[in-house]
């Protein structure tokens, strides 16, 4: 879908905030730690090509979830290392090889169906499942066999990694179990690949002492707290994304007027109602009804149903067409964060950022 640029709804991404956040995390990690920026899912809705290009000088590489996301970066001129974190369909390996994309090996079954000719020169990281139960090897004997096989076929095994399920939680039990399992597996390997990594944002922030020699930073780069509100951050980060629009109509409704599909809202007085061109097709889902936006520093409730393309808000007084409406971001002394949306929806800030659809154009400063 093409972004709708002839509409005042837009995402503003502050690239200097992303850089600031990266430097904050980096300055609290051992200085030789390699940093890969995770820009999967369109950089958590922030726009992967622009975000990646803006970080070129500050990171060692990028992580994405699939080959198409990697190709998008290559087409945008990103020549740095790109690691695909998910399982690459064997039919796409020729593309990975041609575009110098690093691939994750997560099972022997996968290796068995790979065209062995494609392994020569292919750059790989081994995924270890220490307790997520998703992808990865669970025992060292198997990894040793696979490593031997990969080397036989002249693949370049450059890294080994795992992923924590609970690094963003107060209770560290599961984290410590997974950490011990990973360390144990490393000691049992005949030969350890040069890059060893286990840290997502949460691990890099709250377990900065347990990085191996590389980290994979996603959420925190965008200025979000990976734990939601469970753990406080040891340093300040700045949210990079604002979601703004403008009033396209303001009207004064009489008492008893209804608003929106289902006529679920009835005005209880003479109310000033503003219409804003954003709806569930943009990721402002219907459950956002009764949440709020900011107009002129005032908190204005979303009244009536959220439509596909429009919402209606109740304002304290009439405002002219074109008045800025802030849906996520700061306006005067008031702020609405992605975390506020997440709290309201009963989800996590990651999901809020990813829900913002491609219909909304991204602008950068
Ligand atoms: C998405 C992902 C990350 C980044 O996680 P954040 O919490 O956003 O930092 C790191 N590693 C893997 C394997 C991932 O899938």
TrEMBL record:
Pfam family, one: Ala_racemase_N
Superkingdom to which the source organism belongs: Bacteria
Pathway as given in its UniProt record: Amino-acid biosynthesis; D-alanine biosynthesis; D-alanine from L-alanine: step 1/1
EC number: 5.1.1.1
Enzyme class: isomerase
Active site: 40, 261
Segments forming domain Alanine racemase C-terminal: 240-365
Cofactor: pyridoxal 5'-phosphate
Cross-referenced InterPro entries: Ala_racemase, Ala_racemase/Decarboxylase_C, Ala_racemase_C, Ala_racemase_N, Ala_racemase_pyridoxalP-BS, PLP-binding_barrel
N6-(pyridoxal phosphate)lysine: modified positions: 40
Coiled coil: none
Record field: catalytic activity: L-alanine = D-alanine
GO cellular component: cytosol
Biological process per Gene Ontology, one example term: D-alanine biosynthetic process
Chain residues that bind substrate: 134, 308
Keywords: Isomerase, Pyridoxal phosphate
Function as written in the Swiss-Prot or TrEMBL entry: Catalyzes the interconversion of L-alanine and D-alanine. May also act on other amino acids.
Family per similarity comment: Belongs to the alanine racemase family.
This protein's name: Alanine racemase
Organism: Streptococcus minor
């Amino acid at each position: 879908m093409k972004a709708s640029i002839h509409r005042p709804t837009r995402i503003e991404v502050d690239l200097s905030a992303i850089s600031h956040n990266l430097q904050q995390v980096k300055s609290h990690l051992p200085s030789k730690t390699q940093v890969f920026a995770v820009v999967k899912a369109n950089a958590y809705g922030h726009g992967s090509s622009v975000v990646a290009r803006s970080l070129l000088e500050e990171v060692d590489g990028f992580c994405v979830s699939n080959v198409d996301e990697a190709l998008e970066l290559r087409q945008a001129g990103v020549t740095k290392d790109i690691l695909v974190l998910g399982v690459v369909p064997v039919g796409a390996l020729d593309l990975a090889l041609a575009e110098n994309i690093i691939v994750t090996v997560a099972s022997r079954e996968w290796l068995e169906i790979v065209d062995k000719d494609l392994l020569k020169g292919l750059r790989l990281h081994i995924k270890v499942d220490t307790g997520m139960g998703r992808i990865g090897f669970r025992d060292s004997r198997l990894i040793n066999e696979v490593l031997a096989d990969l080397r036989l076929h002249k693949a370049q095994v450059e890294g080994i990694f795992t992923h924590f399920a609970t690094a963003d939680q107060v209770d560290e039990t599961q984290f410590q179990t997974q950490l011990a399992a990973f360390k144990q597996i490393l000691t049992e390997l005949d030969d350890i690949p040069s890059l060893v990594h286990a840290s997502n944002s949460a691990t890099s922030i709250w377990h900065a002492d347990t990085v191996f020699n590389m980290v994979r930073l996603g959420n925190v780069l965008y200025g979000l707290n990976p734990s939601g509100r469970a753990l406080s951050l040891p340093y300040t980060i700045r949210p990079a994304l604002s979601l703004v629009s403008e009033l396209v109509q303001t009207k004064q409704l009489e008492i008893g007027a209804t608003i929106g599909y289902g006529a679920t809202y009835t005005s209880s007085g003479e109310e000033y109602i503003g219409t804003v061109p954003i709806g569930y097709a943009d990721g402002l889902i219907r459950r956002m009804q009764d949440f709020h936006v900011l107009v002129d520093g005032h908190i204005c409730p979303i009244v009536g149903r959220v439509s596909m393309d429009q919402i209606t808000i109740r304002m304290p007084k009439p405002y002219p067409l074109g008045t800025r409406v802030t849906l996520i971001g700061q306006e005067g002394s008031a702020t609405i964060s992605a975390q506020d949306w997440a709290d309201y929806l009963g989800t996590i800030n990651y999901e809020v950022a990813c829900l913002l659809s491609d219909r909304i154009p991204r602008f950068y400063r």
